[in-house]
Automatic annotation (TrEMBL):
InterPro entries: LysR_HTH_N (IPR000847), LysR_subst-bd (IPR005119), WH-like_DNA-bd_sf (IPR036388), WH_DNA-bd_sf (IPR036390). PANTHER family: HTH-TYPE TRANSCRIPTIONAL REGULATOR, HTH-TYPE TRANSCRIPTIONAL REGULATOR CYSL. SUPFAM superfamilies: Periplasmic binding protein-like II, Winged helix' DNA-binding domain. Residues 17-74 form the HTH lysR-type domain. The keyword Transcription regulation applies. The keyword NAD does not apply. This is DNA-binding transcriptional LysR family regulator. It holds the Pfam family HTH_1. Keywords: DNA-binding, Transcription, Transcription regulation.
């Protein structure tokens, strides 16, 4: 009667043979010759014989009958070869699968970015990256900063880019850039005529119904936080989910809005919008790259991050 033996998790039984030696045995079985098997594996015949004998000792079985005309399997050898073939095939599938995953990771970059970063910064970043890696495939998911952080936590993105007062909880981060939020109005708004040069006070801004991004947006979070630091609460009159919608609403006279300087350059230049300073309050903010702890960026993600950090260092 065979005794049942339980091995600790991850520990193979002592008689477990090496895959390479099992492959040698299968080749000897298929060719009927130690010499031909040696030639196919690129080793000497004595080395093949020695490794098969070592396998026999390990298993406690005689696997081959050797003679001057060749070698053939014993009944025990036939059984071992039959068991070895699916094991070797599974090992080949494992090796090929891992290689395919590595190739996919090497040639593919999954990014997630907040709307401002995705629209105004990522295209330039990727253009420079593709200059050295033209075959790199990139996928970009866009959302507000809160949604981007969730994509990174759920491993749907290798690297995320967010705005906001602080880095998202539970993620590692690195500052890759800065910009400034601007208070913008239509040219017909009273502030455009009377406050363009000297600006508005925080209390005046706190009394206005504003056109703001939705909750979870880094633009909104920074603006609300900085205004609160001056002692006033932002009053959203209209909440919209994109920079384009906010610009259109402000130009239509819905009220003052808040957007990144990156997003309104053209409209300020041609007079469709007017930027109004806010006395005593800075709305400068950071752009951060974020990733999972213990999963530092690798491959193209690491190269992209290194390039952004290096460029920022040169600017400062």
């Amino acid at each position: 009667m065979r005794a049942d033996v339980t091995y600790a998790e991850g520990v193979l039984p002592p008689a477990t043979p090496e895959l390479a030696t099992l492959q040698l045995l299968v080749t000897v079985a298929e060719t009927g010759s130690l010499r031909r098997a040696a030639g196919l594996h690129g080793i000497s015949q004595p080395a093949v014989s020695q490794r098969i004998r070592g396998l026999e000792r390990k298993l406690g079985l005689r696997l081959l009958e050797r003679s001057t005309v060749g070698s053939r399997l014993t009944p025990e050898g036939v059984a071992v070869v039959d068991w070895a073939r699916p094991v070797l095939e599974a090992a080949r599938e494992l090796t090929l699968g891992v290689a395919a995953l590595r190739a996919e990771q090497a040639d593919r970059l999954r990014l997630a970015a907040s709307m401002t970063v995705a629209e105004y910064l990522v295209p330039g970043w990727l253009s420079r990256l593709h200059g050295g890696e033209p075959d790199l495939a990139v996928s970009l998911q866009v959302g507000n900063s809160e949604q981007v952080a969730a994509m990174v936590r759920e491993r749907r993105a290798d690297l995320g880019f967010v705005e906001g007062v602080t880095a998202p909880t539970g993620l590692r981060s690195r500052t890759v850039g800065t910009d400034e939020l601007l208070l913008i109005v239509a040219p017909t708004h009273p502030w455009a005529r009377s406050r363009r040069a000297r600006g508005v006070r925080p209390d005046q801004l706190g009394a206005e119904r504003l056109v703001l991004r939705e909750r979870g947006s880094g633009t909104r979070d920074v603006f609300v936080h900085r205004l609160a630091g001056a002692g006033y609460e932002a009053r959203p009159g209209l909440e919209l989910g994109s920079t384009t919608a906010i610009k259109a609403a402000v130009m239509a006279g819905e009220g003052p809005g808040v957007l990144s300087a990156l997003a309104v350059g053209a409209e300020l230049a041609d007079g469709r919008l007017v930027a109004i300073p806010v006395e005593g309050v800075s709305f400068e903010r950071r752009f951060r790259a974020v990733w999972l702890p213990g999963r530092d960026p690798r491959g193209a993600a690491a190269r992209l991050l290194a390039g952004l950090v290096s460029a920022r260092t040169r600017r400062t």
